[in-house]
Structure formats: C-alpha cells, structure tokens
Amino acid sequence: MNKKILFVHGMFQNSVSWERWVTFFGQRGFECRAPDWPCHDGEPAALCSNIPTALGTLTLADVVENFVAECEDSVERPIVIGHSVGGLVAQILVSRGLASAAICISSVAPNDIIAADWHLLKNVTAITNPLMGHSPYLMTPEGFHEGFCNTMTREESDRAYVVTATHDSRQVLRDCLGKRGHIDLAAPHVPLLFISGSSDHIVPAALNRRNCEHYKDKASVAEQVEFPDRGHFICGQPGWGQVAAFAHDWLLTRMASLPVAAASS
Fold first, then answer.
1. Is 180 left (phi over 0), alpha (psi -120 to 50) or beta?
2. pLDDT value of residue 74
3. Per-residue pLDDT reduced to its tens digit, 212-258
C-alpha cells in the first residue's frame, strides 16, 4: 500500500489547518506533505495583516500546478486528501493519473455541479462578485463563524480564526466554476471517498453526494459518507479525530490490495 499522503488545503486556510492530520497519519506510518498554496506560506494571522501582493490574481491553475509538481516529484503516486477547493484539486489530480487514491472532504464540485442551497449560493455570489475585480476576499471573524464554524461557539470559532484563517483570491473560485474546474467523470479512476458534514454552510452535504454520484465508471470505487453536526471546519472542529480515523480505515480497506502506483514520467 502506498504510504505517501499529499494534503491540499482549501480557500481561507493554509497548511496550518492540516497540522493535526499530518501528526495523526504520521504516527500511523504515513509519509505526509502539506504544502501551502502560492501566496499562502506563513502564519495565517500574519498573512491576514500583511496580504501578499499577488494574492488577488492567484488562479486555480496556479494552485493545481503547484500540486502537480508535488506529485511528479514523488517516486510513487501519493494518496491525496483535500478539503473544499483542495477536494476539487484532488479530483483534478486523480483525473490526470497523478494520485493513487483521493479523499475529498467538503469538496467543491467539478463540472458546474450545484445544489439548491441558500448558504452555498450566498457564499459563491459574494466571493465571485465580478464587480470586485481582483481584490482579495477578506475573511472576517463573523464570516468565518457563519461559514466555517457554524456548529461551534463563537468563542471557539474566533480561536480557530486567529490560528487558521487567511484571506483569499476570488479568482480561484471563479475558475472552479468555469472550464478549469471540468474533468471527465465517466473515465476509470482510482478509489475516491467523499466526506461531508451535515451542517456545512459552504459546501452542503447534498453537493458532496451529487459529486460522488456523477462518477459513472462502474468498475471504479467512489463512495461518500456524511458526518452529523459537522460544519465546513470539519477537519479542525472538535471531533476531527473521528473523521481522520474514518479516512484512515477507509484507506486501509480500499487500498491494501492495490499495487503500488509509480508516478507518471
């Protein structure tokens, strides 16, 4: 079984959000990497107070190519675990044959797949607003609590904001909703797991189910699971260890019998 994991964070976060997951899987024998997106390297609080100059023009392609390089530098194709936009990046890497399996947590969906959810539409409209040009979207403590940490107390949310929250590029989400976010969902693929939270205000569980169901190859594994009382901060809110343990056990079950996959040349 492949023992390399590449973690991909989503918007308004950076690699700090994966620290406990890296420790969890590292203690279980996995070699873990959690690179930052471009313009996301550093302490989140510092990034919020001193916004990187190029952040507003960061594109989905910039993010994807950063992780393509990570996969191509690996002797073996890594397992990819991605959250939110990172979940879509994981699906893109799978579609390019660069991953041995992927776990997509509260994942942005490809191919214009959408769900009729007020919170989803509100967030997408606010972030992608074309009138705002390439000005970065500034995440506030109030917005973080409403969107990410709605299942947590405001005090808990504010602590998580200080430790993990960043501002972000509107263009990344615009690209996710355009042709850059399209992949072939009918093609054979490596095992995929979709994890969602029942109370997610950014990527509703219904969208994760639809995303999973759109994978059409009957010989390939695509499964989904929903955790109750979890928001978009599912990887960091209390109970995150249960989610990580489920992901770990799924990998052991689904990948133990698969051959080691060499990286594409």
1. alpha
2. 78
3. 999 999 999 999 999 999 999 999 999 999 999 999 999 999 877 55
* SS (HEC) of the chain: CCCEEEEECCCCCCHHHHHHHHHHHHCCCCEEECCCCCCCCCCHHHHHHCCCCCHHHCCHHHHHHHHHHHHHCCCECCEEEEECHHHHHHHHHHHCCCCCEEEEECCCCCCCCCCCCHHHHHHHHHHHCHHHCCCCECCCHHHHHHHCCCCCCHHHHHHHHHHHCCCECHHHHHHHCCHHHCCCCCCCCCCEEEEEECCCCCCCHHHHHHHHHCCCCCCCCEEEEEECCCCCCCCCCCCHHHHHHHHHHHHHHHHCCCCCCECCC
The CA distance from 66 to 93, in Å, is 11
Q: Angle formed by the axes of helices 85-95 and 60-72, to 10°?
A: 50
Q: Is the pLDDT of residue 27 over 70?
A: yes
Q: At 70, which CATH number?
A: 3.40.50.1820
Position 179 in a domain: yes
pLDDT on residue 216? 95
CA distance 124 to 22: 29
Cβ proximity of 165 and 136 under 8 Å: no
The answer to whether position 261 is within a domain reads: no
How many structural domains compose the chain? 1
- 97: in domain: yes
